[in-house]
From TrEMBL, chain A:
<dbReference type="GO" id="GO:0005789">
    <property type="term" value="C:endoplasmic reticulum membrane"/>
</dbReference>
<keyword id="KW-0732">Signal</keyword>
<keyword id="KW-1133">Transmembrane helix</keyword>
<dbReference type="InterPro" id="IPR000133">
    <property type="entry name" value="ER_ret_rcpt"/>
</dbReference>
<feature type="transmembrane region" description="Helical">
    <location>
        <begin position="182"/>
        <end position="202"/>
    </location>
</feature>
<keyword id="KW-0812">Transmembrane</keyword>
<keyword id="KW-0675">Receptor</keyword>
<dbReference type="GO" id="GO:0015031">
    <property type="term" value="P:protein transport"/>
</dbReference>
<protein>
    <recommendedName>
        <fullName>ER lumen protein-retaining receptor</fullName>
    </recommendedName>
</protein>
<keyword id="KW-0472">Membrane</keyword>
<keyword id="KW-0813">Transport</keyword>
<dbReference type="GO" id="GO:0006621">
    <property type="term" value="P:protein retention in ER lumen"/>
</dbReference>
<feature type="transmembrane region" description="Helical">
    <location>
        <begin position="121"/>
        <end position="140"/>
    </location>
</feature>
<feature type="transmembrane region" description="Helical">
    <location>
        <begin position="55"/>
        <end position="78"/>
    </location>
</feature>
<feature type="signal peptide">
    <location>
        <begin position="1"/>
        <end position="31"/>
    </location>
</feature>
<comment type="similarity">
    <text>Belongs to the ERD2 family.</text>
</comment>
<feature type="transmembrane region" description="Helical">
    <location>
        <begin position="98"/>
        <end position="115"/>
    </location>
</feature>
Length: 215, 10
């Protein structure tokens, strides 16, 4: 475990916990895309199937349980909580996420490492994670104003992905370990999606103005 | 599964 990997996991953990805390504390999910949260819950559900079969480490298992628990809790809060659900902006959060799930499913059936159910679902989760943030980015552009917690959420997710890329580079040079090219390409595409957001996030931070994404 | 196969990342 290298520092980039640990920092990446901690940043990822912070992103989901910050979001869950926001929703739990202020009983509002304004600005949060339910579609993105459902996609992340699906990503974790299809990726962490090995939690029952392969034991890697206590850390690995605990983190998987936290990610599963927090992502499903967030979906539950937005869908079911009698107060939170009122602040969900369903008119704006209209990204048809089936248009993301189906292509990822097909791509996993076409391009994978091994043709086993577990491997296909794992590959599907890698592709889906790469695009899961799209409904949230679209919602941020539609609502134009970004309340700082949602901005922080996207920022932390982007930081987690960037740190994972540093982790892969570090492992390549130190352990001669290379991640599978599917993981590498999907991870790169996912991180590039955040690059645009980062630019506007830093611009607004530098000029100390409210973050406005171009329409 | 050999080492590289084990998916040790989250």
């Amino acid at each position: 475990m290298n520092i980039f990997r640990l920092a990446g996991d901690m940043t990822h953990l912070a992103s989901v916990l910050v979001l869950l805390l926001k929703i739990h504390t202020i009983k509002s999910c304004a600005g949060v895309s339910l579609k993105t949260q459902e996609l992340y819950a699906l990503v974790f559900a299809t990726r962490y199937l090995d939690i029952f079969t392969d034991f890697i480490s206590v850390y690995n298992t605990v983190m998987k349980l936290i990610f599963l628990g927090s992502s499903f809790s967030i979906v539950w809060y937005i869908r079911r909580h009698k107060i939170v659900r009122r602040s969900y902006d369903k008119e704006q959060d209209t990204f048809r996420h089936y248009f993301l799930v189906l292509p990822c499913l097909l791509l996993a059936l076409l391009i994978h490492e091994k043709f086993t159910v577990k491997e296909l679902l794992w590959t599907f989760s890698i592709y889906l994670e790469a695009v899961a943030i799209l409904p949230q980015l679209v919602l941020l552009q539609r609502t134009r104003n970004i309340d700082n917690l949602t901005g922080q959420y996207v920022f932390l997710l982007g930081a987690y992905r960037s740190l994972y890329i540093l982790n892969w580079i570090y492992r390549y040079f130190t352990e001669r370990h290379f991640v599978h090219w599917i993981t590498w390409i999907a991870g790169l595409v996912q991180t590039l999606l955040y690059a645009d957001f980062f630019y506007y996030y830093f611009e607004s931070w530098k000029n100390n103005v409210k973050l406005q994404l171009p329409a | 599964a050999d080492e590289s196969d084990v998916k040790d990342e989250l």
